[in-house]
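Re: duplicated header lines in exported structure tokens

Our pipeline writes sequence and tokens for each protein into one text file. With two proteins the header for the second block appears twice in some exports. Here is an export where it did not happen, for reference. First protein block:
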Amino acid sequence: MKKTFVLFFLFSGLFLFSQVAQHIDLAVIDTPNDDGSSLQINWKVSGYDSGSVVLERIGENGEKRVLAKSNNLERRYVDGTDVRPGVEYAYLLSVYDVNGEFLEEATISTSSKAQWFNTDKIALLIWMIILTVAIVYFIFSAKSGKELYIRKISGLESMDESVGRATEMGRPILFVPGISDLDDMQTIAGLTILGQLAQKAAEYDAELIVPVCRSMVLSTAKEIVKEAFLKAGRPDAYKPDSVFYLTDDQFGFVAGVDGIIVREKPAANFFLGAFYAESLILAETGFASGAIQTAGTAMPSQLPFFVAACDYTLIGEELYAASAYLSKDPHQLGSLKGQDLGKAIFVIVLTIGIILEISGISFLKDFLTMH
């Protein structure tokens, strides 16, 4: 009899121990550093060597949506399906054995919220603060009359020479602001330079020819040239027909510009803006006509053609810096100098990071790439 009771208590204890050992750790947390559109569900099922789990989300009216089925008894799942900030969601995790028989389940509910700041972007925040402070400092320095050094750009220094040569020879100046519309920054940069060139042309009484291939560029270029002639005190010398539309077709436009070069034989050609496969055709035709040519684009694949066929080439960011270089506007000069300082700091930090990484010290890399 005593042996029977002992065996009974022993088996009862083992059964209770197995029930305690079989446990579901289910947790739902708000996804950090997001806009509140997702939740993370973590689960760990102990007490079973194998089996499967089914994760479901319970709706407001009680319906269930299966989110995941997995053979992993320990896993993390991110629910980003129609999750809204501030709404409470309930999740049900069901555990099954290898034969598909139901074993146990657990439920949990929580809500998400949007974070104001992504803590993974602290390095970017520091970088933006440094850049902003540098730009503001240089803008105020330029406004106070301090001379800010800007590296000379040969293509822009030659503008007076090009306009003077055109005036002496009695031949026009050709300006092409690329083939893209106003949504391209290269076009805007080219039109900014057009304003400075048109003002010099008005002062020297030189003829200006500006063919364009976009309607919005046409309207903008007309206003820029007209304003330039007004600034130069020569409004009567402005010719509305000097800025005209050819065609939107890429190679049709190029054929039209080449025809102008052959017929009018301009003394100076300016190709400043976004160019593609037509760059070599334009530059080679201008070179054959004997004109002084200045080109500039931020298209890396077209720069070699301009370098080979033009006298002066604005490479990459030189095109964007041209506006500040020519106008000497304090805001543009300050922005340019501030960005240059930011680039210098970036190169220094990059160099230090490489040296530290080679030395086996990774804290700087970990900080800059934290996630």
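Second protein block, exported in the same file:
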Amino acid sequence: MNQVATPSEFLDKLRARLRRATLHLVPGAAVDDALFEDLEGQLLQADLGIEAAQQLLARLRARARAGRLRDTGALRAALSDEIAALLAPMARPLVVDTGARPFVVLAVGVNGVGKTTTVAKLAQRFQAAGQQVMLAAADTFRAAAIEQLQAWGARQNVPVIAQAQGADPAAVAHDAWHAARVRGSDVLIVDTAGRLHTQGNLMEELRKIRRVLARLDAAAPHERLLVLDAGTGQNALRQIEQFHAAVEVSGLAVTKLDGTAKGGILIAAAQRFGIPIRYIGIGEQAADLEEFDARAFASALVGTASEAI
């Protein structure tokens, strides 16, 4: 797999992926009520949602009244600053507690968000940091899910604990924890079956996995990572709500910022839930997953005057 990208390389890719979402503000235009109305529409189209959009606009209007926004260039810079300030408290990288061996990451999310791929990318990141990693194939329902994770593990030389398709996912997590303990693994990542947030029986299965792990280590799973597809827009907020109720989500990984997603959902999620955004993903390669940087993301989303088309 590819090596992890440098921050500048990742930012360049992020800017390219978010180009379709970049705000369109005519250079030199007056900052007036008409411009703010147009900006509100653009923010809503970028999936920020009413609450986050109104919060940002209120702050920008206050700057305008104070005479600090003379043109659209100043407005764009101010918006970038305000978005970065809103997101900054949520830009908290995942820190592995070295006192917990294994440190358990429970990866959850709906079908099709790129959860298994994100698990593999995380494994490589942990390996690059010098940590011993093990994977648990607790997605025992999706066809070929176990084989997919085993293929990733073989590629990265990471052991994968698995049982037969249809096995109890909680039993897989249980066995994987013991295996990680015996082998001295630093990190155990548990890949779970994708499920709709409306499927109560499957959400209860997640609760069971968490209970089983907690019996082995009262603090486990130490990270409950919800993987979201940025392209789902406002539906992602409902997913956060339901998964948080089931497993108390402690971090978010937002994937598929690939040119079709609008990116504003990160702002909406931050404004409503305040859950740390651990990672963002912009493609299929390992180098396309990076720790979330609030200022870099705000800059890429808002764009510079030269980037606005």
